[in-house]
UniProtKB/TrEMBL annotation:
Coiled coil: none
Organism: Flagellimonas aquimarina
Protein name as catalogued: Universal stress protein UspA
Boundaries of every UspA domain copy: 29-101
One Pfam family this sequence matches: Usp
Homology family: Belongs to the universal stress protein A family.
Length: 262
């Protein structure tokens, strides 16, 4: 149900992919679910494929020109680690499109009110922010917060007295102003219709990238967190966790990982 609503709001075709053997019983179950879809004019097709889930999903996204892959992720359940820990980590590195992880899909629509998007300094960030505005507009969100994660090492000053405390305070303010200026430049390119009736906030936070924004999204009870897709960096990528790993290990809310399609 949730996926069909998302496809409707985005004006997209919905492809349901079942990885596993096809049977009459499974087909009946799927058609029974589809009979309750709210938007009857939605274009829907069903595909049946066998193989390893991650390999099948990667191949299908590539061959079918998918724009958005949606996966369900159950929190605090055994399957949570299977979907988010095993498959999502591989897909976020290798898949050719954006990925949406849903941790709280519902039969009845729960309006999306607050979207949080990363504003870290990266060449892909303007694309992620523009997508966050598009999604906020499509889902009718009321607030969008752009979180500027600033690495703690940028303020690596030992606080020993009032003088050093003042230096840190001034440095933090300078870094905040720098980030705010960079974000304002990005906002100039956002279509005006996406800004209508949307409260826009910027928030600077200091700490470990990925972990900090995930914690922030949880604290403010965001309905959706939007992040850049992780970059492929070869062997080191498999040894050292990148920003997204901290979020995948404990999803604070629904997560949209944005990647430009080829």
């Amino acid at each position: 149900m949730e996926t069909s609503r998302i496809a409707h709001f985005f004006g997209a075709k919905l492809i349901l992919l079942h990885v596993g053997s096809k049977s009459d019983q499974k087909e009946r179950q799927i058609h029974e679910i589809l009979s309750h879809v709210e938007h009857k004019n939605l274009e829907i097709s069903i595909e049946w494929k066998t193989g390893k889930p991650d390999e099948v999903l990667l191949e299908t996204c590539q061959s079918s020109g998918i724009d958005l892959l949606i996966l369900g992720a159950l929190q605090h359940e055994n399957l949570y680690q299977f979907y988010v820990g095993s498959i999502a980590r591989k897909l976020t590195r290798k898949v050719c499109c954006s990925v949406l992880l849903l941790i709280k899909p519902s039969k009845e629509r729960v309006p999306c009110k607050h979207v949080v998007v990363n504003g870290l300094e990266d060449q892909e960030t303007p694309f992620a922010i523009s997508n966050a505005f598009y999604v906020s507009h499509a889902l009718g969100a009321k607030q969008l917060t752009i979180v500027e994660e600033i690495r703690q090492k940028e303020i690596a000053v030992n606080i020993e007295d009032d003088k050093s405390l003042k230096r840190v305070t001034i440095l933090k303010e300078k870094l905040k102003n720098r980030e705010d200026s960079r974000i304002r430049k990005i906002l100039k390119s956002i279509p005006k219709e996406y800004l209508k009736d949307l409260k826009i906030k910027t928030q600077s936070i200091f700490g470990k990238r990925g972990y900090s924004i995930g914690h922030y999204a949880e604290v403010v009870r965001a309905d959706l967190l939007v992040m850049n897709a992780p970059k492929k960096t070869g062997v080191l990528d498999r040894i050292f966790p990148h920003d997204i790993e901290y979020i995948l290990s404990d999803l604070p809310t629904d997560l949209l990982i944005v990647r430009k399609t080829n």
